[in-house]
Amino acid sequence: MTQQQRLNELLELVSERGNVSIAEIGEALAISAATARRDLATLADQRLVTRTHGGASALGSGYELPLQYKIARQAEAKVRIAKAAAALVSVSDSVGLNGGTTTSEVARELGRSDRLVRSDGDFGVTIVTNALNIAYELSVRAHVKIVVTGGVSRRQSYELVGPLVSNSLQEMALDVAILGVDGLSVRFGATTLHEGEADVSQQFGRVAKKVVVVADSTKMERTTFARICPLDQLDVLVTDLPVPPELAKALGAAGVEIIIAP
């Protein structure tokens, strides 16, 4: 196991339990106490956990992990979700993608899809994004036309935010917006951790004919700080496991199609 893999698993452990001791870390990750202390020191220096006497505790629920630490979380589920979401895109569609690990997987699926390559050599799909990492990855795909919004970059997520994003998007009409979220609940609908990113997602939703949320099961019945939209402003939810009954009922009442990725 590499150090990055250990750090990812350690963050996952702290997030799940809230508080962990050195002994619990050693048992869960099969590492020595000395290695556990060094890894905790690394995470604490980056302000990702809080050191306690003999262990560590999670930061508040409003804290946002940097994107590189989110990549390993629910990785297999996100790939399956991405494949199912990419199947909703047709040749010549214009697609809005916000930032995040799941939408990054969707972008990869769209980028390598032979189905979206046109025989006449023209662009098979247009991707509009505020995520710098998505734009960078897709820039080498000949069948993908990339449009990047303006805005100010957020270091945590590589997303552009601010009024320049709205100025760009209000001049567009998209076939579909595929949005990653941090929470989905009956009362608050789709939410995310940062108000600037919530505003961008709202703008994507306003200019798209169809709004698709891609979210793994850990996001269900969870609420985070900034609201994107209520459930009735969504058209499709793509997830990896059956949705909890109360939320599934509310989504059905709102007319949202639920797709469970195979």
TrEMBL record:
The keyword DNA-binding applies. InterPro entries: Carb_Metab_HTH_regulators, DeoR-like_C, DeoR_HTH, NagB/RpiA_transferase-like, Tscrpt_reg_HTH_DeoR_CS, WH-like_DNA-bd_sf, WH_DNA-bd_sf. Pfam families: DeoRC, HTH_DeoR. Keywords: DNA-binding, Transcription, Transcription regulation. PANTHER family: AGA OPERON TRANSCRIPTIONAL REPRESSOR-RELATED, HTH-TYPE TRANSCRIPTIONAL REGULATOR SRLR-RELATED. The keyword Membrane does not apply. PROSITE patterns: HTH_DEOR_1, HTH_DEOR_2. Residues 3-58 form the HTH deoR-type domain. It comes from the Bacteria. This is Transcriptional regulator.
